[in-house]
Amino acid sequence: INQYERKVVFMKKIILIAVVLIMTNYNNLLSQQNESSLSITILFDNYIYKSYIKAGWGFSCLVKFNGNTILFDTGNSGESLLYNMKKLDVNIQDIDAVVISHSHYDHTGGLLAFLKEKSDIPVYVPSSFEPELQKKLKGRKINIIPVKKPIKIFKYVYTTGELGDRIKEESLILDTGLGLVVITGCAHPGIVKILKKSKEIIDKDIYLVLGGFHLRDKSSSEIKKIISEFRKIGVLKVGPTHCTGDLAIRMFREEYGENCISLGVGRILKFDEELKKVKTQLNTKTEKEKRNLKSENEERIIKINGKNIVITGSLTIREVEKLTGVPARYILRKLGIPENISKNMNYGRLRKVYNFQIQDVRRYIREYLKSK
Question: Do 216 and 248 meet the contact criterion of CB atoms below 8 Å apart?
Answer without folding.
Answer: yes
